[in-house]
Amino acid sequence: MTDSSTSKSPTAPARWARWRTPLGYALGALVLFGLAPLVLSDFRLGQLARYLCVAIVAVGISLAWGRGGMLVLGQGLFFGLGGYAMAMHMKLADAGAGQLPDFMLLYGSTDELPWWWQPFSSPVVALAAVLVLPMGLAALIGWSVFRRRVRGAYFAILSQALAAAFAILLIGQQATTGGTNGLTNFQGFFGFSLHDPVNRRTVYFLIAATLLLLMLATRQLFHSRYGELLVAVRDSEERVRFLGYDPALVKLVAYVLSAGMAGVAGALFVPAVGIISPALIGIVPSIQFVIGAAIGGRASVAGAALGAVAVAWAQTTLSEEFPSAWTYFQGGLFVVVVAFLPGGLASLWHLAAARRRQRTEVVTAA
Amino acid sequence: MTVILSQSFTGVSIGAVLLLIALGLSLTFGQMGVINMAHGEFIMAGAYTVYLLQGPIGSAGVSLLVALPVAFAVAGAMGAALEWLLIRRLYARPLDTLLVTWGVSLMLQQLARDLFGAPNVHTGTPSWLSGRITLIGGDDPLTLAHGRLFILGLALAAVVALTLTLRLTPLGRRIRAVVQHRDLAEASGIATARVDRVTFVLGSGLAGLAGVALTLVGPIGPTMGTNVIIDAFLVVVVGGIGQLRGAVIAAFALGVLQAVMEYSTTVSVARVTVLVAIVAFLQWRPQGIHTLRTRSLA
């Protein structure tokens, strides 16, 4: 997808285009940091924090799917890895040194902390694991899959199956993972009480800042040489191979980065929402992540993020009042957008701009 | 010894269910390169057909047999509608088809919830399917459930019927031509769009049959499609595109592997192991068991 904003002639629309992105991000920052905390109640702000976490995942999806052509239907896997890494640390920190987390006492099946829980008592290890676990696993999966040129629908199904398997594994190991209930009921976040509204507000600011930074970084990546290469791989993998690049490596980088973003989102989701459970990372939530990005605009960072926030907001607000109608509406909107407007709602902007240009050309020609 | 036999029979019967749910998918994916996520909901439609027929007919045995053709027709009609409304417009974009059909499956699930309620419904088991055959008596008996044998028989019958259709009928010849080389088939005067539609109806109808079979082994509910669709796709992925033989081998291999793993570990560990095995297998044969050799790069 070409960016119509990089027009060479210094006409009025082009001058405007140069400022459009910085202005957009400034406006976004103003809304997130100024307006939202002012007008929203603490409860609503917590909900917004949750939607912003989904938006972080969507930014990663726009990188891997929108620009890289890899339909990542299993981002819940990486979201869950980041989330559980953070949640395990918070559980251990709540329990205090040498104590078992409360749910393990409840099930009463183990007297000793399982070995794979132990490293997470260190905050440094837990924070590192939030990035290392998802990105390491994505590197492993991606390397073995892309090198063998498994792609398209095969890759999509495989990634979805992995997310499903992870959820099943967590449910099966109830004594050490909390099973279907997941990990919940957290007291503190790195020593700060989560019952204090000020601290909850700080978590929101942390999430908003992370989202904006990741959006800017991803946008920068789109406009780099690597971003061009990624789009080239998406559009014609074989040609890129013939030019001497290794498409597997190009795809791997995008896939690993998107997994890292999902992991960060999962880790931030836990203190903001207060739960991580298999129901939040299985097949259905994994596809929900993609829906937001698809409706907003898969190849555009801002489109994907805004789409994710809008869909997540509509999901909570409308599904409470009209659960049945909302499902039809969401499914229908998704079908119509993907089938007839593959660029998402963000591409309406480009379509309108293209039409305007066409009209101007017709006028000058006449 | 009996343990091995009974576990292999469990594996074969899991494989038969997998084969039934994957057969239609293998057909449509093979021919059109289209991933139909709503396939699971067509299976669900077949299962609810049994449930609906049981009321007026009464006898569970008769209604199951009547349901077979009816479910085939119901699911086939749904497939025809989906193909005509959406899929034929999306042939060049397989990944978008996957997402669009997932949106459709979301709506169909909600429809099932609104029509039949969210909880699972149950159908009676026909009397002639409730018994077990005893193969080895004594202290360590080996018995096979009639219901499982029926599913195995249905799966094999479906494979045989489909194979004969593809091999012997003019329609089968046209389908094979389109699978092997769409452009050449079109250039030879085959109306590929029409062949696609017929294939899609056939594949969806097979999903309806699978739904009827599934009523014998599990509950009927709005989410039953989601539960089986991933397994069905894994069978297709492992089996390879365009050949029924690959799907048959893959279904039984995955079924036996699942049964063996379930016997030696827990269900959840077994599922994860099977998945890891599939990823490892794709390292070895990225295009599945059966590959259709072409000169294309993609």
UniProtKB/TrEMBL annotation, chain A:
Keywords from the UniProt entry: Cell membrane, Membrane, Transmembrane, Transmembrane helix
Compartment list: Cell membrane
Entry GO terms, CC: plasma membrane
Segments passing through the bilayer: 23-41, 48-65, 71-87, 124-146, 152-171, 203-222, 252-277, 289-314, 326-349
Highest taxon above the source species: Bacteria
Bilayer disposition of the protein: Multi-pass membrane protein
GO molecular function terms attached to this record: branched-chain amino acid transmembrane transporter activity
Coiled-coil portions: none
UniProt cross-references to NCBIfam families, sorted A to Z: urea_trans_UrtC
UniProt protein name: Urea ABC transporter permease subunit UrtC
Organism (species): Streptomyces radicis
Higher taxonomy: Bacteria, Bacillati, Actinomycetota, Actinomycetes, Kitasatosporales
Gene: urtC
UniProtKB/TrEMBL annotation, chain B:
Superkingdom, taxonomy of origin: Bacteria
Transmembrane segments: 12-30, 66-87, 94-112, 149-166, 198-220, 232-257, 269-286
Entries under CDD domains matching the protein: TM_PBP1_LivH_like
Biological process according to GO: amino acid transport
Keyword entries, A-Z: Amino-acid transport, Cell membrane, Membrane, Transmembrane, Transmembrane helix, Transport
UniProt membrane topology term: Multi-pass membrane protein
GO MF entry, a single one: transmembrane transporter activity
GO cellular component: plasma membrane
Compartment(s) where it occurs, according to its Swiss-Prot or TrEMBL record: Cell membrane
Family (UniProt): Belongs to the binding-protein-dependent transport system permease family. LivHM subfamily.
Protein name (record): Urea ABC transporter permease subunit UrtB
Biological source species: Streptomyces radicis
Encoding gene, per UniProt annotation: urtB
